[in-house]
From TrEMBL:
InterPro entries the UniProt entry points to: Class-I_Pyr_Nuc-Dis_Oxidored (IPR050151), FAD/NAD-bd_sf (IPR036188), FAD/NAD-binding_dom (IPR023753), FAD/NAD-linked_Rdtase_dimer_sf (IPR016156), Lipoamide_DH (IPR006258), Pyr_nuc-diS_OxRdtase (IPR001100), Pyr_nucl-diS_OxRdtase_dimer (IPR004099), Pyr_OxRdtase_I_AS (IPR012999)
Similarity annotation: Belongs to the class-I pyridine nucleotide-disulfide oxidoreductase family.
Primary gene name: lpdA
Catalytic reactions of this protein: N(6)-[(R)-dihydrolipoyl]-L-lysyl-[protein] + NAD(+) = N(6)-[(R)-lipoyl]-L-lysyl-[protein] + NADH + H(+)
Binding site for FAD: K58, G122, T151, G152, S153, D318, M324, L325, A326, H327
SUPFAM superfamilies per UniProt: FAD/NAD(P)-binding domain, FAD/NAD-linked reductases, dimerisation (C-terminal) domain
Misc. comment: The active site is a redox-active disulfide bond.
Name of the protein this chain belongs to: Dihydrolipoyl dehydrogenase
EC id: 1.8.1.4
Protein source organism: Spiribacter salilacus
Length: 473
């Protein structure tokens, strides 16, 4: 046994690396073990999010939006562009550069905070020992006063559409296409499926999304989801719900067979993305004698403060209950670090914002209208469309709406739901308001600059009590 640490973190995604940095800031000696390897064979910090998830997908969404605007929207602004040519390999190189810059930044943060990075596989043993197996070399065993498990998640694979990492790919493979597929199929119309489908739809693919659930975006407020679907289909995305994929057959094209309410169906596509969700990456995480408790789906059992059944061993991020969101994992990492140091770390799981980075964007925090109805909670609702805001009109981004749900008796804000331009940024105001237990009246009496997109939030708050100025209540 060698080199005891105050904390060993297994996993260097947003939950792991943020937790490690906070531990170091609090004066602890920290080592981070991470097994991620880039497509060029080199280890890289940042986990799925920075390497093949949140960051590269947003880079491609941004690039594809620029292309789409040049092709279809700028002429209306009096900007005429002739001879536009799409260079997909350059788009992918730019995405890779963004990823490289950010993952390299984490490496520098580790160096500045004196965190030791161990590239390889980490395995929890008994008595807070951790076996480290480097990518090349023999295993070593380290000890620590505390261990934080932050190994993230992996895409779920399905037998009906086995990946070949060429024509049938997961979300990571969808970020590596070197040309625009003429016809693209996506199994799963959730967050990742919609984002990847949007990228290639903007670049010219004919995209069909096959969703198993009979409700589109079931986690989203239903009114907002209906509005979003209408806008996506107007863009050319074909969304089929209540579809169960039964088989895929590869020939000159990929034949995707599925069943829906009308019986057996099939479509022909050139590429297929499998995006049916993610599962916790806990395979090979702990030895039997470590006695770490996981559930039947592989999630690590933790208490309200992310401590496992083993004292001094914690788990954060995608490997534990709650939404698989990078910012949720990061806050759990900070909470655990602060509790290890004897401080009062805490995460409010009621005010975690969600975002889908399509165009228009979808964002929400708190309860949906359906959840409030199911719970029997009395509420009032206020909505306001971006079409009535001067800033959205000037931007040529007038689609969508803001919806605020407040308690009918106390006026406390219970949920805020948006579809429209830059809602990924606008949702922060709503999250802060809910964190401070604000009422719709508080938000309505807060002065918002004019002209801004945030005025839609202000007007929706006014509309809760039928006071919206730019809407017939």
């Amino acid at each position: 046994m060698a080199n005891p640490y105050d904390v060993i973190v297994i996993g260097a995604g947003p939950a792991g690396y943020v937790g490690a940095i906070r531990c170091a800031q609090l004066g602890m000696s920290v080592a981070v073990i991470d097994e991620f390897v880039r497509k060029d064979g080199e280890p890289s910090l940042g986990g799925t999010c920075l390497n093949v998830g949140c960051i590269p997908s947003k880079a491609l969404l941004d690039s594809s939006e620029h292309y789409h605007r040049v092709q279809h929207e700028l002429a209306g602004h009096g900007i005429k562009v002739d001879g536009t040519r799409l260079d997909v390999p350059q788009m992918i190189r730019r995405k890779d550069k963004v990823v490289s810059d950010l993952t390299g930044g984490i490496k520098q943060l580790f160096k500045a905070n004196r965190i030791e990075w161990l590239a390889g596989h980490g395995k929890l043993l008994a008595d807070r020992q951790v076996e480290f197996t480097p990518h090349k070399g023999k295993a070593k065993v380290f000890s620590a006063s505390n261990v934080i498990i932050a190994t993230g998640s992996r895409p779920i694979e399905i037998g009906a559409a086995p990946l070949d990492h060429d024509r049938i790919v997961d979300s990571a493979g969808a970020q590596e296409f070197q040309e625009v597929p003429k016809r693209l199929g996506v199994i799963g119309a959730g967050v990742i499926g919609l984002e990847m489908g949007s990228v290639w739809n903007r670049l010219g693919s004919k995209v069909v999304l096959l969703e198993a659930q009979d409700t589109f975006l079931s986690l989203v407020d239903h009114q907002v989801a209906r509005e979003a679907r209408k806008l996506f289909e107007k863009q050319g995305l074909e969304i089929k719900t209540n579809c169960r994929v039964t088989d895929t057959r590869k020939g000159k094209t990929i034949s995707v067979h599925y069943e829906d309410a009308d019986g057996k169906q099939n479509i022909q596509v050139d590429k297929l993305i499998v995006s049916v969700g993610r599962r916790p990456h806990t395979d090979g995480l702990a030895s039997e004698d470590a006695n770490l408790i996981t559930d039947e789906r592989g999630f690590v059992n933790v208490d309200d403060y992310c401590e496992t059944n083993i004292p001094g061993v914690y788990a954060v991020g995608d490997v534990v209950r709650g939404p698989m969101l990078a910012h949720k994992g990061s806050e759990e990492g900070v909470m655990v670090a602060e509790r290890i140091a004897g401080h009062a770390g805490h995460v409010n799981y009621e005010t975690i914002p969600w975002v889908i980075y399509t165009d228009p964007e979808i964002a929400w925090v708190g309860r949906t209208e359906n959840q409030l109805k199911a719970a029997g909670t009395p509420y009032r609702s206020g909505t306001f469309g971006f079409a009535a805001t001067g800033r959205a009109r000037a931007m040529d981004r007038a689609d969508g709406m803001v919806k605020i749900l407040a308690h009918a008796e106390t006026d406390r804000i219970l949920g805020v739901h948006m579809v429209g331009p830059q809602t990924s940024e606008l949702i922060a105001e709503a999250t802060l308001a809910m964190e401070y237990e604000a009422s719709a009246e508080d938000l309505a009496r807060t002065i918002h600059a004019h002209p801004t997109l945030s005025e839609a939030v202000h007007e929706a708050a006014l509309a809760v009590n039928k006071r919206a100025i730019h809407k017939a209540n």
